[in-house]
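Support request, please re-run this one:
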Amino acid sequence: MNNRLSSPTARVIYFFAGFFFLLVLVAQHKAWRDPGSVFFDPSRAYDFQYSNVRLRQAYEYLAEAANQPFHRSPTISQEDVALCVGVASIARNGARYLRTTVASLLKGLTQDERDQIQLVIFIAETNASVHPAYQEKWLENLADDVLLYDISQEKLDHFQDLEEHNALVSEKMLFDYMYVMRACYDTGAPYIVLFEDDVLAMDGWFHRTMSGLRRAEEKSPTAGKRGDYLYMRLFYTEEFLGWNSEDLPTHIFWSLALVALVPASLFGLRTSTNLAKKHLTNRTILAVSCIYIPFLITLFFLTGRITTNPLPSGINVMNNYGCCAQGLAYPRHKAEDLLHWYDAEPRIGLRDSLIEQYADANDELRWALTPSVVQHIGRKTSKNGGGMAKKKIPITQRLWHFPFEMNDEEKLRNEHARVVGAAT
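Re-run finished. Output below.
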């Protein structure tokens, strides 16, 4: 019995059991923010961390903005504007997001950065006075343009009816999105960035976005069929970026290849030295190949794709599984294409789904900035229902970018200062 417990095979079993236990502990520590992981912990993963920091900064900025209207530098002309930032906003019962969205977009910008932005806020209510921000001083002081509906009475009456029946998703929200896109297009800005009104932008979002757009322009000619790109995503949720079914053949191939390669390597190693020959018995190699390696492969997949194979920082192609429309940056000519597409025929449906349908039909390349520079903090949905999702997490809450909460206030401030300093 003692000989069996001290045999080479037994020693390998003990070593592997300890090693595997340590790997499980590491996986638990690393993967609790990964929604595709068996170790995902929703009770902690959706907590505000950096978002709380940014909310505090946003409220401080709003307090200052009440008495300090923005003034563009006198030497800046409309041709100097790099981004038109558009936000369409509706009133929500029990929640006010627009003010912190706008403040987080502006807090921390240098004068030069702010001069490059044309900020367009669209109060998307047929009766603008029902929106709590409409007559507040901060909105007038911070926005370059505040839009109201300028449409026919017939269309206005129709939207009023949609509002009264809470039928906003299928038609009016798409119209509102295109309405603010058109307003941004009319400014002549080379890029149009559309945000939903319930997001928070990180300190430094502007310089990271501009850097991402430059990289997208450089890489698109060789990355897509058309030589350009439809948009760059500034927000995405990892909820849909797990082990997707179309990659299953690839995963199976490499898993089987590993199972075959390991015993071949061990047999080769056994012939190289007497020490290896003593410890690598047939039984040991069989145990490693048929038990240990499958266990490790299983743990790899259970840990989650975002943890084991994360997207590299920078820009990444995201033609599939990119969700949702919280922040999208469009080149001007692509916004024009979308406006023509929208005008061509009546369209009813979720705006993000319809835009993806357009992109798929036209082989459009889509980029995503990694990590995301905005977070979705909305808990009061503007859509019908809202519903509950798996693990009893509301659907609105699942629109979440987990790495955003890992940002460090001081590191972002230093990064921003370094980039600004290098540009001067």
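Strands lie at 83-89, 117-123, 145-147, 191-195, 199-201, 231-233, 314-317, 327-331, 366-370, 374-376. The mean pLDDT is 88.
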